[in-house]
Amino acid sequence: MTFQNDASSVYVSGQPVSKGGVRALWGKIDGLEADVGSAIRDGAAIITVNIGGTGSAITADIAPVFVNAGITQISGGSTIEYIPLTTNDTANPTMTIAGTTFDIRGDDGGTWRAKAFVPGRSYLLRRRGGTLRVILGGATKAEIDQAGVIRLVNLTGTADNFTAELAPGLEGQTVGTGSTVRFVALGTNTQEGPSCTIGSISRQVRDTNHSPLPAEGLLEGRTYFAEIHSNTIMRIVYSAESMAERLARDARLDANDAKWTDRPVFIEAETPETYTVPASTRMIVTTTLTSDYMEMWRKSGDQGSPPAEGRVPTANDGYWIRIAKVAKESIIQSVLLAIQELQTGMSSSMQTVVQRRATIPDRPAGAAMVMWRTFDDPSAKMHAGVDLHAKVEPAPILSFADSFNRADEPLATNDDLWVNVRTQGALMTIVNNAAQPSASNALPVVQSKQFLPPDQFIEANVLGGSSSLSSGKGTFLYINMPPETHAGYRLNLRSSQLVLEEVDEALNTVTLAATSSGFLTYPVTARLERDGKMLRAYIDGVEALTAEASTYDGGMIGIGANAASGDISGCRIDNVMGGVLD
Fold this sequence. Notes:
Blueprint: H1 19-43, E1 45-53, E2 57-62, H2 64-68, E3 79-82, E4 94-97, E5 100-105, E6 123-128, E7 131-137, H3 141-146, E8 149-158, E9 161-166, E10 180-184, E11 195-198, E12 201-206, E13 223-228, E14 233-239, H4 243-249, E15 252-253, E16 265-268, E17 283-287, E18 293-300, E19 311-313, E20 319-327, H5 329-340, E21 351-355, E22 371-373, E23 389-393, E24 399-402, E25 409-410, E26 418-422, E27 428-430, E28 435-437, E29 445-448, E30 456-465, E31 474-481, E32 488-494, E33 497-503, E34 509-514, E35 524-531, E36 534-539, E37 542-548, E38 556-562, E39 571-580
Parallel strand pairs: 1-3, 2-4, 5-7, 8-10, 9-11, 12-14, 15-16, 16-17
Antiparallel strand pairs: 1-2, 3-6, 4-5, 6-7, 8-9, 10-13, 11-12, 13-14, 17-18, 18-20, 19-20, 21-23, 22-23, 24-39, 25-27, 26-29, 27-28, 29-38, 30-35, 30-39, 31-32, 31-38, 32-33, 33-34, 35-36, 36-37
């Protein structure tokens, strides 16, 4: 609208109004424009254009329609839409918008992992201080399909030594201890202990019981699930089984008509001597209708020893090795009467468990001791040959103590309390009624022989923790150690510093919590305990460190030490106690 001239208040068309009133209207319009711009900036997703730079150092502009509305910067709380042209090769990429550079993080402020951005996918990022947090990004079918299991594809090499890649869409996914992977075997392995390489890490494939996977443990075309146990081991936890294989396990067949599989089958014979061993056969069970026993045999290609009662030749240059001789039901009752004699004179808390199985019974969690007895027949106790196992165990003894008040000698020598689990370069040794390493710059470790439930503790008088603050040096208290390993959670008293760590068999160490140097003055009473998922460390009865347990459960307690040069006597431990946490 216009006026006729500055001296007139008459519009060219319309009713006359005050020019001052019209001019006042412009200020309100300007204010409304600013309010709309602020609302868009803080309440809507600002579109980015002109994406450039690299996937790890991104550059972008604000779309012109937002600039025209007065939005020229990304303010606190603003949300932007970003569609990457390429993935980020490194973790925590950066984005520069309108001259300001922001670090990109996950929605919780934590690390945005390498290769997390998928080209072409739409992401929403919200500014928080100097960072842009990814608050929304659509899930792909590949990600939904995983459901906690990482699929391996493009297997190459041989079934004895193969390499695998992560499925498309999972680039950058971490395959570490505790991860579960799924793969389809590219062939049947011909050697024991095949290896699988994922990324740059090669691991031995082991059976469900942690023994090396035998030849023909992987069958071509079959799907397997495996758990990553460490940087050197992956363990098969599940594999599909055909109906024919299930039926074969329960088949009782005449030796001449036996159908052989990779599962145990029954044949009507006293021994499998001179029988041809098909390639897929791993184990058989022999018996006759008149025999009181059943015998289990495994296949072996070793011909280095002469035949014996439990080692008979096959018809094709192999051997059957007898691994068990088990009594039938016909003599179980008489054997039970003999077993009852074992209980004579035992306390009322003793418990007898009878098991008919081929292997020595496993020690249950919390049991201090397992006694087992074998019988050929009720009148010939303790003869060789395994028919039946009687497991006699006392009420659980859930405490442990060692004062080291005995002669100077290696700690695990003639000892009912400790076993060596790491002896490279040194041994834990008793010297003047305390334990210390036998050499410097080496890490000997011993663990208790008693298996404890997960909620356990160890406490000791630590007389010294080495003179070095270097990583790996110090005096160590362990809990939750898997049997016969030096892995677990450990409290490292390293010179004047206290460190709570998680360590595996390869000595890969993760620091869970630590004090500053100058914290410790020896001697101290140190304690490490686990309560549920919480790890707690105490010095002289005062809580010093806490962390969360996520890898190891149950196991043994243990001690170890790694002294600096010339400082062997500086790493000394006395009066160790441990047991189940109340």
